[in-house]
Amino acid sequence: MLMSATMPKFLRDHFLNLLESKSLVIAGELMERASNEWAYLDTDLDGIREKVLEEISAGKKVALIVNDVETAKKEYKYYSKKEFEVLCLHSEFTMADRQEKESRLTSKEGNPYELVISTQVIEVSLDVSFDVMFSECAPIDSLVQRAGRCNRHGLISFGRFYVFNPSDTAVKYVYRKQKDILDRTVEVLKNNYGRLTEKQIMTMVEEAYEGFNLYNEDYKLGTEIIRDIEQRYNFFDVNIFQEDENLATRKFDVVKVPVIPADEYMETVEELFENKNYKMISLYEIPVSISKFKKYIRRLEISNKYNLPIFKIRYNSEYGIDYEEDDSNTHYSF
């Protein structure tokens, strides 16, 4: 069984054909529900800061969702200087730190933070609810997933879901292959606002993806990469120092390399290894993109007798890795 709140017709048809099924169930009783008020703000991150602060001052639980890790770090550093509780959440934390953050965020006592700054990682799995959400523009299906964390539990009459302009980084690197969908999303959002029902939102998804060809060159490339990996590699054991350069280039935006900060965790992971507690070592690994690994981290390897991926990197549990320099070409991790 496949379930989704954001499945346009081309995907429904694809899976029905793939599964040789004719059974499609739509939760019609929920389609007239309207949980949030949607609005498009024709401004950038700097332009929404005053409005974010106003909502926090009014006692609202606020989320700010951006499209890349480095922007999330930058916004955390800005808002963490204010006098309220802020959480930064993205993919570049150790599993131990991320689990702790998510545990606090979803505790039975409720979300303890006035502001949560996150990347796309908040779109799935987390059972958390905000009164107000500010989201950098992304393809419409991603926005719907994000909006699912706004007034998620229906405890207020309606939440507010604001979308603002995508950054140059998002357009050039994060969604460069989906620029047409991104442009259509902006157009659709500008024409649809207010308290939108689930039915209206689904119509917006269909409009943004009208005429989209699923079986394009990216689809073909993806299936080729999968076959290549299945035939030649154990996907999770690809050696970043030795792997085939052609395959590495094709997986450049997808595969993450695990790294362990030496200063914080070298003694811990070596002790775990000595005690043969290998599974726990992954709690102290940080997944980084191949591009960041090659540019900033690879040369900082710390040799160790266990051949663990330990590197002399600066790591902060509040916002993640501090890189040596700021280069927008590397800002497409989530």
UniProtKB/TrEMBL annotation:
Residues 73-154 form the Helicase C-terminal domain. PANTHER family: ATP-DEPENDENT RNA HELICASE RHLE-RELATED, CRISPR-ASSOCIATED NUCLEASE_HELICASE CAS3-RELATED. InterPro entries: Cas3-like_dom (IPR054712), DEAD_box_RNA_helicase (IPR050079), Helicase_C-like (IPR001650), Helicase_Cas3_CRISPR-ass_core (IPR006474), P-loop_NTPase (IPR027417). NCBIfam families: cas3_core. It holds the Pfam family Cas3-like_C_2. This is CRISPR-associated helicase Cas3. GO terms for biological process: defense response to virus. Belongs to the DEAD box helicase family. Keywords: Antiviral defense, ATP-binding, Helicase, Hydrolase, Nucleotide-binding. It comes from Acetivibrio straminisolvens JCM 21531. One of its GO terms (cellular component) is cytosol. The lineage of its organism: Bacteria, Bacillati, Bacillota, Clostridia, Eubacteriales. Transmembrane segments: none annotated. One of its GO terms (molecular function) is ATP binding.
